[in-house]
Amino acid sequence: MDSNIGKKLDGRYELLELIGKCTDQRMFAMYEAIARGVTLEKLHEITKIDYFFLHKYLNLYNMECRLKEGNIDAETYLRAKKMGYPDKAIERLSGEKVPMHRDPVYKMVDTCAAEFAAKTPYFYSTCDKENEAEQFIHAHKTGKKKILVFGSGPIRIGQGIEFDYASVHCVWMLKQAGYDVVMINNKPKTKLVKFLHHFFIWI
User: Fold this and answer.
1) Could you report the per-residue pLDDT of 136-176, keeping only the tens digit for each?
2) Confidence band, pLDDT 50/70/90 cuts, at residue 195
3) What are phi and psi of 88, to 5 degrees?
4) Which pLDDT does position 124 carry in this prediction?
5) Long-range contacts of range 126-132, CB-CB < 8 Å, 24 or more positions apart?
6) Mean pLDDT of 1-8
7) How many Cα atoms occupy the beta-carbon half-sphere of 133 within 13 Å?
8) What is the mean pLDDT of the chain?
9) 61: which residues sit within 8 A by CB, 6+ positions away?
10) How far apart are CA 15 and CA 43, in angstroms?
11) Rounded-to-integer distance, Cα 203 and Cα 153, Å
């Protein structure tokens, strides 16, 4: 995926043509289009993407514009962090050091839908105060050594089988050897169907 797509597309027509195609470049092209003044109505007309999601793009663009103005105070910093901007991105856009630092916390997604207590949940990182992962770890101490398994990252639909096979069999063997296993990956969908094999999962 190329996040520098705006540097490669000079013409508005070429940009809109790319937006009309369902490729892995579309999301970057849409963001670039908003930065060039294309309206959400036009983007909706081309893509039929719901306005709810188009406004998310616009929110990100507005935050980027705010960060480029500089003079980042604590309130703006926290709003940017909650929108997913890491410290390095905030500093790059604003041209100044961040006024503070906030480590991410982890929230739990209940894989059992509250029908009974989840033993193998997965967690996602966010900017907040309460760390649900810490609570879960304290409540489920086994005394076993833990091994961290890194996933392969983003994949396209249809490519998941090799990653699922490799990661799950890796976890199986480690659990048979007497370890607790923690899987880390940034592809939520892939790991949703494999949660039963892990101690817990970080996304």
Assistant:
1) 888 878 888 988 888 766 666 666 666 667 777 888 899 89
2) very low
3) -65, -35
4) 83
5) 126/82, 127/78, 127/81, 127/82, 127/102, 128/82, 129/105, 130/105, 131/105, 131/106, 132/105, 132/106, 132/107, 132/108
6) 50
7) 17
8) 82
9) 31, 34, 35
10) 11
11) 10
The 3-class SS string of the chain reads CCCCHHHCCCCHHHHHHHHCCCCCCHHHHHHHHHHCCCCHHHHHHHHCCCHHHHHHHHHHHHHHHHHHCCCCCHHHHHHHHHCCCCHHHHHHHHCCCCCCCCCCEEEEECCCCCCCCCCCCEEEEECCCCCHHHHHHHHCCCCCCEEEEECCCCCCCCCHHHHHHHHHHHHHHHHHCCCEEEEECCCHHHHHCCHHHCCEEEC
Nearest partner of 104 among 75, 64, 66, 134, judged by Cα = 134
What contacts 130, CB < 8 A, 6 or more positions away? 105, 107
Confidence of residue 109 (pLDDT cuts 50, 70, 90): confident
